[in-house]
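Quick note —
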Amino acid sequence: MDWKFRSDQPIYTQLTARLAEAIVAGAYAPGERLPSVRDLAIEAGVNPNTVQRALADLERDGLVYSQRTNGRFVTENGEMIRSARFRMADERIAQFLADMQKLGCTREEIVTLLKEVREEEI
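Predicted structure written out below.
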């Protein structure tokens, strides 16, 4: 996983976002045990307290759960994961549309551009 952090946002929120992305993308399967706080901290090059805070946020959001001595696991609730995926997609689409409007693109131009990109990929 890419652990390069930006300076414009707290590291724990960036960790939370990247771990959530990995969960919704299937990098961590439902029910799978996540790496320990210590292992994630070493991998990301951050303080374990920072990782702990990010995991607490994911737990609060329902994407992970704790088992007292066994660590944290990805939720087995597929609907929760699906809902998180669509929420993230909606946020990215909204940001994309806002960026295109800043460039002066009309709705029709945006649709045309997307169709052209899609045709190039096929």
